[in-house]
Amino acid sequence: MDVSESSNFQRIRAESTGTFAAIASIDKVARLYSFTAVPGSDLIVNVGLSTQPILSPWRSRALIIGPVAVLLCGALVVFAVKLGKELRRRALAEAELAQLATTDGLTGLANRRRFDEVLEREWRRSVRTGTPLSLMVLDADHFKRVNDRYGHAIGDEMLKALAAAVNRCARRPGDLPARIGGEEFSVILPDTAEEGALFLAEKLRSELASSSIPLATGAIPACTVSIGVSTSHAEAESAIALCEAADRAVYIAKRAGRDRVEYVPISRQSIPLSFTPDLPGE
Predict the structure, then answer these.
(1) End-to-end distance of the chain based on CA atoms, in angstroms?
(2) Which of the residues 5, 86, 120, 183 is marked catalytic?
(3) What is the DSSP string of 135-160?
(4) Which residues are bridge partners to 148 per DSSP?
């Protein structure tokens, strides 16, 4: 049979040596051709092996490996999705725990731990930048009498009402309202001088003095508050010094008759007072 005109032979003749796979013109079988020209003659040595015995083992392994690889890829995708969900769930749980660790359970305000952290941070920033830092501390007047007369459930409602008013007072993102004791609250006011802090304190005191707590049997007046204010213009030796000055201002307000705002500058924080502070709730 003359194959000189076939495309396979024309390729062999043109390339002289090499390897390629093609369909044989004689038997129409897919073959792997390997050929080379004999130097010094017109002869070409060519071997054409069927690809079936060559590729059959590979195809058999591919039929096994392919599905296994698909299953493994699918399992990895499922694992990645589940891992992502678990990591997101864990992140949310950790964020919730962190929130609970720094939040007062009754009022929803920041707790004492959070208050201490933020006050220290803002004091350091005030010292570094030279900006004023004001602190407002307020204590409910005669709160123990409320508990004794109406019960602790009503006392809790009173504390929630106080917390809501304090929270409304702290409107800026940097302000921090906090419950730092039983009936004691505080507001950290960064970048706020005496005038601004005193204005907010008087506004809060006035609002609480005219508010009431609704009950099933009728409303009762909310507690009045004694508010102490102090401001540091980077001269406070520590955040504790600012807190002590504000506490001292609260005691002065209590001594002066309660339901009032008092201001104590940092320089007066070491002046002793000639009175005994109220017992909790008084």
Answers:
(1) 120
(2) 183
(3) EEEEEETTHHHHHHHH-HHHHHHHHH
(4) none
207 a catalytic residue = no
Q: CB within 8 A of 129, min separation 6: which ones?
A: none
Tokens of 86: 């678990």
Of residues 249, 215, 208, the one with CA closest to residue 231: 249
Structure tokens at 66: 């392919």
Which residue(s) pair with 48 in the sheet? 33
The CA distance from 111 to 101, in Å, is 8
Q: Which of 139, 28, 120, 9 is nearest to 20 (CA)?
A: 9
Please return the burial class of 240, using the count of CB atoms within 10 Å of its CB with bins 0-12, 13-18 and 19+: middle
At 1, the pLDDT band (50, 70, 90 cuts) reads low
Is 71 strand, coil or helix?
helix
> What dihedral angle (degrees, nearest 10) is formed by the CA atoms of 200, 204, 209, 214?
160
Domain ranges of the chain: 112-268
pTM for the full predicted model:
0.64
Confidence of residue 280 (pLDDT cuts 50, 70, 90): very low
| CATH class for the region spanning 112-268 | alpha beta
